Amino acid sequence: DDWEIVTKPLEEGEEEEEHSRTPVNKHFSAEVKVTLKCDSCSYTRTKVELHRHISIEVNNTSNTVHQGLSQFFQPEKRELRCEKCFCETATQSMELVELPKCLLIHFKRFIVEMSPEFYVTFRKNQAEVEFEEKVDMDDYCEGGNLARAYKLRSSVHHIGNTASCGHYTADALVPNEEKRDTWMRFNDSHVNTITDIQ
Asked: Is the pTM higher than 0.90?
């Protein structure tokens, strides 16, 4: 009774859509298989979604990239009526079916708050996040057959307390004259060598 919607690669001779040839899609697109399984009769529906980045939560306790990714791919209960038995809950699971050449991870630092008068404000979560030098994606791939580890190459920082104001800087691993990678901090026109990113 299962059915599946899967995006497939183009056959030879098929014309690729213009938007799919952009550098962003070419280098940063990942395919994530999303499965909804009825909690009563186990009827499943599956589709493949395109993700150009993975947004992970920032908690006030200890934070690592691995913890954020584990939470992102954790099965989750959904309020959704089953087409077969009309049960009103399902479990959603996600797994990577195609990895990007370059992995973008976004930390969800801005918290949306609404006042009793329906006035929306944003607050920034300042909790520290521990960066691992390498991120192994094997645990989040379909059947573990896409194993790939990503090395940290750059980081973008928001300096400021609110979503409406602040300043962005970037740290990047750049080859130097000796062809060794060196961390550099880019802050408008100021570029400095740094020993570690923060």
From this structure: no
